Inverse folding.
C-alpha cells in the first residue's frame, strides 16, 4: 500500500454520527433560514442538482468514454483535467488512476474532505467521517471488506490522499461482457463508489 503525499448509500459506521463541522454547518443553516437569508427550498434544489444531475453522472460519462475510446483513456491518464476539458466539463486539479488486476486504487482525504465534486457530485457522509479517513490508510482491505469488496491477495491496494490542489478519480476496470456497448450503456453501470475505489461497477445481470 502507498499513499499520495501532501490536501453510497451504504449504511456504514463511518457516517453514523455528525462531525463537528457538520454540526456547525447545520447550525449556521438554521440561523440563516430563521433570519430569512436562505430559502430552504432553493438550498434543497441546489443539493439535489449536485446529488442527482451533476454527480456522479459526469464522472460516469468520463469513465465510459475511457472504456470505449483508447485514445481518450490515454489522454485521461496522462492529464485528466485537460482530457475532461475536451468534453466541455470541468475537472480541476484532477488525476485519474487506473485499476488493474495488479493494483486497486482507493481515494481518501485524511485532512478534511477534498473531493472531485465536479465529477462525483456531493461527497457521501462516510467519506468525510474520521473513521473512514483514518482506516482507509491503516487498513484499506478492511475498509474495502466493509463495502463488500474482496480482492485477490496478490492485488496491491494503493491509497491516494486528496488535497485542495490534487484530487483523484479512479478508473475502474471495465466489466467483462460489455463489449460492443454504447457509452450510455457503459455509464449506467459506473457507480460513484467505483470512482472512489470503495466499490466496483454494477454487476451485470
Amino acid at each position: 500500500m502507498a499513499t499520495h503525499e501532501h490536501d453510497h448509500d451504504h449504511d456504514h459506521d463511518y457516517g453514523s454520527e455528525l462531525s463537528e463541522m457538520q454540526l456547525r454547518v447545520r447550525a449556521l443553516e438554521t440561523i440563516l433560514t430563521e433570519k430569512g437569508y436562505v430559502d430552504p427550498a432553493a438550498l434543497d434544489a441546489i443539493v439535489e442538482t449536485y446529488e442527482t444531475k451533476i454527480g456522479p453522472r459526469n464522472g460516469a460519462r468520463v469513465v465510459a468514454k475511457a472504456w470505449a475510446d483508447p485514445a481518450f483513456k490515454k489522454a485521461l491518464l496522462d492529464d485528466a483535467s485537460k482530457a475532461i476539458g475536451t468534453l466541455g466539463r470541468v475537472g480541476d486539479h484532477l488525476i485519474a488512476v487506473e485499476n488493474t488486476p495488479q493494483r486497486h486504487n482507493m481515494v481518501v482525504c485524511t485532512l478534511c474532505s477534498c473531493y472531485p465534486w465536479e465529477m462525483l457530485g456531493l461527497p457521501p457522509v462516510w467519506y468525510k467521517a474520521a473513521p473512514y479517513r483514518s482506516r482507509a490508510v491503516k487498513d484499506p482491505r478492511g475498509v474495502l471488506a466493509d463495502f463488500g469488496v474482496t480482492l485477490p491477495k496478490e492485488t496491491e491496494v494503493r491509497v491516494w490522499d486528496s488535497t485542495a490542489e490534487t484530487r483523484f478519480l479512479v478508473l475502474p476496470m471495465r466489466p467483462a461482457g460489455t463489449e460492443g456497448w454504447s457509452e450510455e450503456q457503459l455509464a449506467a453501470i459506473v457507480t460513484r463508489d467505483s470512482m472512489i475505489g470503495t466499490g466496483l461497477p454494477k454487476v451485470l445481470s
About this structure: The radius of gyration is 17 Å.
